[in-house]
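Reminder: ligand-aware prediction takes two inputs, not one.
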Amino acid sequence: MTRILDFPYAGCSLTIPGTMNAAIFLDRDGTIIKEKEFLRDPAEVEVLPGAPAALKRLREAGFKLVIVSNQSGVGRGYFTLADVDKVNAHLTREFSRHGVQFEKIYFAPEAPDQPSRGRKPSPQFLWDAREDFGIDLASSYMIGDKLIDVQCGWNAGVKMSILVRTGYGAETEREFADKLERAVIVDDLCGAAEWIVNSLKG
Ligand SMILES: [Mg+2]
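Here is what comes back for the chain with magnesium ion:
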């Protein structure tokens, strides 16, 4: 467990080096649950096959799990913040049945044309997680199915951004091949967990 020394002035803390306090930052839709355009009904949540096992493996490897999600359906007026909370609560319950806990779910409710503090590809929520949990971003990973996900990781300075081919991932791989040279591309969350765990050995 990394110890954090809190300084008496706001926004400054010191992480003692030498201990791992890394996170896996996860996109939600198309990455850990099935992509359903503008998902608003908890009953529609479908955990992707193998996702709980993959996340359990990453937890056991010592990573904190943090979800970072754009939910522009709120800003577009398709659903409310309460709907997002209900979906997230359901998802949290589903994964906890498999023994998987998330540290926090950050989400940006704004539409693409609205000012937003954290909407991906902004790295803001990863910076927030650094403050909230003392996470070392340079030892952390970002996993998602869109270009904005991998860009978010790069913008925050994570060790590696990983694109999964689930959700919009296969389409993203075809469409933005020239922009993905620095990304690792795998079939799904299991592939991502496998890649990460193997990279720790090397
Ligand atoms: Mg997604």
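The chain has seven helices and eight strands. Residues 27, 29-31, 144-146, 167 surround magnesium ion (CB under 6 Å). We will return to this case in the review session.
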